[in-house]
Amino acid sequence: AKSKGRDSAILFNDELSIRIERKLDIERLLHFAIENQEITLMYQPQLNTRGKVTGCEVLARWNSEQLGFIPPDEFIPISEDTGMIIELGYYILQEAFKTFRNWEEKGIELEQFSINISMRQIFHTTFIDDVQRLCQEYLSDTLRSKIVFEMTETSVAEDVSIIIEKMNKLKKCGIRFSMDDFGTGYSSLSYLRQIPIDELKIDKSFIFELNDSNESTNMVKTILNIAKNLNLKIVAEGVETQQQKEFLIKEECDILQGYHFSMPLTKSIFEEYFDSNANS
Ligand code: C2E
Ligand code: CA
Ligand code: CA
Ligand code: CA
């Protein structure tokens, strides 16, 4: 038994050191990845209940020369830990804005363009200035009023007043806010009422369980009611099946997003998707 304990301790240490090494690799390579244009953006369509494409969510991808494909669920948290999210987030905003401007020139008209923003980014001292400058450089007034920043709930209650102040400054530029992964975090109803958000995004875990769990079904109905009562737009993500789609339409969810309609697409494939949707 003694030697068995030692073996598993060694195994554990190996696993841990592999994980630490990978984290260090990712940390080390992120800066280079931005310069080397290994980070690209994908655009996932959002549709209204009549099936029309009304918007998209920008999702980052990293195909590393050294490490291969690294999912955002892995490199975004690391970039948040290390502070690299500031540089990365700026790059993502800039590239996304370039795409939106190009689409405007091409006549690809959407109602909204959603971009994920980390709390760490919002709290950074230059964030408001950076966003204002990028807006001025790339976006028409019309486009500016179509930008939505998706942020996740935060548990740090004492920071709420600072968040509100920052959000209000950005709202003056026309930017709107969506509460991402809603239902999974800590936010209370009073928190929801305090912060100036415009949209709720139901977390995909609730959508996945719609068909086989009464709790999830009730949860989704409850969230839809909260959104309605607070006058917030509501988006469901992770819609994969016809059944889920029909349920959400019946319950008057505004906007649907998920593999049932489309995966996240490259810029040019999104353009094709938009064209065929417009002609259908
Ligand atoms: P998220 O913001 O909740 O994004 C939704 C995730 O669900 C995306 O994963 C998307 O590809 C995936 N998804 C969409 N529809 C479906 C579906 O029908 N079924 C399933 N199973 N999944 C679906 P992705 O692209 O891997 O991104 C993961 C997370 O990484 C995002 O979660 C977000 O938190 C973060 N992330 C991605 N891009 C960015 C970014 O540019 N900035 C920041 N700060 N975070 C980002
Ligand atoms: Ca999101
Ligand atoms: Ca989400
Ligand atoms: Ca998420």
Describe the structure.
It is built from twelve helices and nine strands. The mean pLDDT is 92. By secondary structure, it is α/β, with parallel strands linked by helices. Helix 1 crosses helix 2 (72-82) and helix 3 packs parallel to helix 5 (127-138). It has an eight-stranded mixed β-barrel, surrounded by five helices. A hairpin with a 4-residue loop joins strand 1 and strand 2. It has helices spanning 2-35, 72-82, 85-106, 119-123, 127-138, 141-144, 160-172, 189-194, 204-208, 214-229, 242-250, 267-278, and strands at 39-48, 53-64, 68-70, 112-116, 147-152, 176-182, 199-202, 233-236, 255-256. It is 53% helix and 19% strand. Bound molecules: ligand C2E and calcium ion (CA) (3 copies).
What's the order of the H and E elements?
HEEEHHEHHHEHEHEHHEHEH
Oligomer: single chain
Tally of helical segments: 12
| Low-confidence runs | none
> What class, by secondary structure content?
alpha/beta
Please give the order of strands in the largest beta sheet.
1-2-4-5-6-7-8-9
User: What fraction strand?
Assistant: 15-25%
List of distinct ligands in this structure: ligand C2E, calcium ion
Percentage of residues in helical conformation: 40-55%
- Rg over C-alpha atoms, rounded to the nearest angstrom: 20 Å
